[in-house]
Amino acid sequence: MTTTGISAQKHCHQCDKTQDQVGSLKTCSGCRTVYYCSKGCQKAAWEFHKHLCKKVTTMKMYRYEDNSEIPQVSTMRVVPEELQSEYSQKKHINKMTKPVFGPSQKAAPISAPNQIEVSHLLEEFNGEKILHSINYANFRDSLLKEGKINSLIDWFCKAIINWPHPIFYLDFSSVYFNVANNNMCQPLQKDDFFAKSRALREIGMAIVRADVKCIINDPACGNAVSTLEAALPFNQLSSRQQKKHQRFLKEEVHIFLSLLLDKCPSPIWAGLHGQKSYMGIQPVVKPAAECKSAREKELRNLLEKTP
Questions:
Q1: Beta-carbon count within 10 A of 242 CB
Q2: pLDDT < 50: residue spans in the chain
Q3: 132-176 confidence digits (pLDDT tens)
Q4: Residue 203: which residues within 8 A CB-CB, separation 6 or more?
Q5: Which of 198, 211, 206, 306 is nearest to 257 (CA)?
């Protein structure tokens, strides 16, 4: 259960009586996050609590575990920040009826631990900067578990501009998909989010396909495309969503080709699969110019296939 921001001493979120005062507290069966000392308090709080209770949801993300070259799908509960704050200081009910993430809301202020730069999630391997997959997944999951969806979206936007790693594109895609699929956005935004999710996914997988081809000697590298595809959430787009997707895809690919192609990290990540070596074999990468050419080719193929 996520309790970040809630006082260590359990208390009734209607009358504020603590567990020591009443002997025992019962958890809301819906969100499993807040507590009540009696049915009376739960009933009295429902008019306020019902708007947040339904926003507690689950998200599926993937991560590399130690000593595994295959990404594992993990499920986590996401609790809105409102539920993790001092609940007894009741905010105006009109504010609570708004979606967790919407155009009228700016990203929530990020506390110092969450302002982590991409550079702090990297490590060096054979003279190349690579993503520390475990530290990155822990950072990403901590924001998700705390319900800081806005903060994570803001982080991905900045991270991709500075260091366009394919894993960032794929995770960004998963976040957009989960937000839309779990109704965590305004109804009018769902089409945009599903469309953006698909566009980011396709760009990420295009880079993955290119990077896999740039690893010369890793016997496990070929599994990266199929295992990542299997781990990512996916849905069929409606005709309206498909039109939006085509527009987003063209925009993002053009941005990548014009601004980000030279910033791409080494493809060596595709040969590591979350560990320093595989069966004692150190990945060997093709020359940088060939890697750049391979990525550009895959991305231009996306444009050619898009009406």
A1: 16
A2: 1-8, 66-69, 86-113, 274-279
A3: 888 888 888 888 877 788 889 999 999 999 999 998 999 999 899
A4: 169, 249, 252, 253, 256, 299, 302
A5: 206
